[in-house]
Structures are given as structure tokens and as C-alpha cells.
Amino acid sequence: PVLVESVLVLAVALAVHAAVWDRFSWCALALALQAFYVQFKWDQLLQLGRAVFRFRGAANSGLLPASMVMPLLGVVMKERCRAAGVVYFERLGVVVASTGMLLALFLSVLAVGITKPVPTNTCVLTGVAGSVIIYTMKHSLTVSEVIEVLEVLLIFVYLSMILLYLLPRCFTPGEALLVLGGVSFVLNQLIKRSLNVVEGRGDPIDFFLLVAVVGVILLGLFFTVLFLFMDSGTWISSMFFHMMTAVLGLGVIMPWLYRLIHRNPLFWLLQFLFQTQTRLYLLVYWTFLAASACGVVFYQNTKRSSESKKHQASTITRKYFHFIVVATYVPGLIYDRQLLYVAAVLCLAVFLFLEYVRYFRIKPFGQTLRHLLSLFLDERDSGPLILTHIYLLLGMSLPVWLFPRSCAPKGTLPGAGALAPYSGVLAVGVGDTIASVFGSTMGEIKWPGTKKTFEGTMTAIFAQIIAVALILIFDSSVNLNSSYAWILASVSLVSLLEAYTTQIDNLLLPLYLQIMLMA
């Protein structure tokens, strides 16, 4: 399975290289080759228990698929924005690609350094790939961009040491690279933009995303360190938790956002949410869907008898939430993507806050949340945090957040790129859901070395093609310009990756589909 997963990732890298064909796409290929060799060293370290931290079990290291996400995303973003003539975001794409390559090289050097005996061939390959990448960065980045890349690397190193120590078994090395690398980049972007505020420049919803993500992460870090020294399950600790959340929210996060958007954040948010009648209808509809999701949780828990405490929700039951998020995101993508952007940020902040309440057993709802959510745990929730629902939200939202709006004339990209914001809906909402439901109920022919079935994968590809046809009917802004073969190839590659990867597919698949569609 690891070899097939690697071949699929290399196929995506080659497809992007064929579409772009510049120095950074060559560097991405060099990175992919060295990551292919280094991931076996990581797998060996995980099996022998010699890794620096305790990573999630029942999965391989995932270094190759995770290493390629940021570099390839930066390469396709750079190319799209260069074609649109938007220099600022073209340079941002260069920085994203360079940052992703440097973070991946850091993890590779770490694995090579702690492997005994030292793997000579892998060291040589890593050195050659690193030399090519650093040489390219030297001749492509300005001094300020080099400093920015190094700042992200520094943040990533410190953030990894803190979070991987405090949260054992929550990530594989690849997932840590993807999640913590993304958080490090967002934090650095927020610091950079806060120090260079120009009134009237920048979209408020982008600032809202940066401040919300960084604010909630810092809130979690603060309480994680604090509750090392005190019991979080008492009423005094719970009152302190709620009080400090209000203080940090109103005293730090709100002023920080005010500095960036130059208006009262609460008034701006209320005005934005209720600006048009369409937004009001969407908010009412989404509230109904949120209540339905809560109803599913309560109903499934009422079915759990006291004699079957170890009973877990079935795969089909968990896929109810996939159907709900598809019903949530599709109207937002068609009618108001900016509202969907902001609503997804708010939902992420709420999800993370509720996870803090559950994890720290904050009264009065902490223990109740532990009981309710324990029914939906699977083998990927082996650490102290429950992250699968947060990964589902991120998988649906990242294509919307990462879509280069400034580089898209009339709000959409030409050809297959017009489907890029729908990557989460297609890969996770439709493909992964249909593959799981049909594979678990009717699948008989298993892919070699996996539990996934041939029937599930083929049904997922067919369902995504039907979904693309429906998007063409209902979303008039989508114009594929006869790029149907590329779309079919993209959907097929990502569906095969879903069958063979052991990483969090809710997070990985939408990003790879977005990369392919934007290429």
C-alpha cells in the first residue's frame, strides 16, 4: 500500500510539473524522490519506537503525501496568479512552495539524523535534493522572502516540540507536517500583516480567518500549559477557563482584529452576516442543518444501551455527517462564497472551543461531550484529542479558504480550476462517502493490501462525475472549457489515493484534488 500511495503522489507531482514546467516544479520532483526514500526511514523508526515523539499508530509515516501538499499548492497558485498578472499573490505562491519544501526537508533531515546506522544512500539523496532546492530558493527569493520562510521554519520547530509532546498519538509525522506547518504559516502571515497594516488594503474576511485560527490555537496552548499545574475538572478551574476565554477574546483577539480591519469586529461581523436576504436564508438553513446534526448525535446515544458501552457508531452512521456537510456547503458555494468562508471560520472556532471543553472536562458540559462523542470514535482517534470532525470541517473549508480569489477574474478560474472550491465537496462529501457506504455494504473485491474495495472506488469516481455534472447545471459561474479528461484523471487519482492512504483522508484528499484542478 505504501508503494502504491507513493506512485499516486508521484503521478500528481508529474502532472503538475507537466502543466507548469518551471524551476519550482523540478524542485518539487526532487523533493518527492527524496521523501519517497526518507519515509521508509520514518516507518522504521515508528515500528522500532525510536521516533522522537509518540505518533499515531496503525498508520505509516505519511511523509511523502504530506511533503508534497504545500510545495505543489504554492506552485499552482504561483502559476495561476502569474497568468492573471497579480504579482503579490504570485510571490506568495513562491513563498508557500519554498516554505513547504524547507519544512519537508527539515523532517527528512531529522529522520536521517536519528536513524542508526546512518543510511548513506538516503543521506546523499537528501543532500542532493536539499542543495537543488536551496540553490533555487537563493536565485528566486528576495531577502525578505527568505527571512519569512526561515521564520515559518522556526515557528514550526517550536510548535512541533510543544504540541507533539503535549498531545501524543494525535498525529503521524506527515499529519504533523501538514497541520503544524499550516498553523505556522498562518501565524507568520498574521504577524507580518499586523506589522505592515495599511488601511483599506486586504480583505477583512482574510484577516478574520488569520486572527480566529491563531487566537483559538493560542487559547488552547495557554490552557494546556496552565492545566498541567491544576486540576481542570473542578468548578473553580471551569470558572477560570470561561473567564480567561472572555478576557483573551475581548482583550486580545478583538483588538487585534480591530487593528487589521479598522472597524469594530462585532459590528462588522453582524453587518456582514445579515447584509442581504440571501445570507439570512442561508443562515436559517444552516442552523436547521446544525440542529439536525446534533439530533443525530443525541439519537445515536439514546440507542446505546447500558449493556453495550463498547458499541461504536457504524461507518454508514458516521457518513450521515458527510451528507449534512455537503448539504451545507453546496448552497454556500453557489449563492454566497464569502458568507460560506466566514461561516466556516466561525464553525472551526466553535469546534475547537468545544474540543477544549471536552478535553479539559470543563464544567458543566465537558463530561457530557465526552460521553456523547465517544460513540463516534474510530481507530484514528487514538490520542487524547478527537479530531476527525475537525478534519472533516477543514477538508471541506480549505479549498474555499485557499482559493486565490484575487487571481480569479469574475470570481472563478477558467477550465477545471472553476471546480477548485468544490474540491472538498467532491473528494470528501461525495467520493469518500460513497466509497465507504458502497464499499462496506456491497464491496467484494479488495484492493491488494488494504481493506478498501474496488467497487467502492469505482462507485466514488462515478458519483463525483455525476456531482460535476450537477454543479455545471446549478452553478452558472462554472465553465470547464472542455477540460473533462483532466477532471476525470484528477478524480480517479484522488479516489485511488483514498483507497491506499492511511493518513487522514478528510484532510489530504481535498487538497490533492484542488492541486490537480488548479494545475
TrEMBL record:
Q: Which GO biological-process labels does this protein carry?
A: dolichyl monophosphate biosynthetic process
Q: Keywords, A to Z?
A: Endoplasmic reticulum, Kinase, Membrane, Transferase, Transmembrane, Transmembrane helix
Identify its membrane topology class: Multi-pass membrane protein
The molecular function terms in GO held by this entry are: dolichol kinase activity
Record's InterPro entries? Polypren_kinase (IPR032974)
Cellular component per GO, a single term = endoplasmic reticulum membrane
Ranges that cross the membrane? 7-37, 57-76, 88-112, 149-167, 207-228, 240-258, 278-299, 320-335, 341-361, 382-402, 422-442, 454-474
Going by the entry's taxonomy, the superkingdom of the source organism is recorded as Eukaryota
Q: Where in the cell is it found?
A: Endoplasmic reticulum membrane
Annotated EC:
2.7.1.108
Family to which the UniProt record says this protein belongs: Belongs to the polyprenol kinase family.
**Matching PANTHER family, A to Z?**
DOLICHOL KINASE, TRANSMEMBRANE PROTEIN 15-RELATED
Please give the name of this protein: dolichol kinase
The gene designation is Dolk
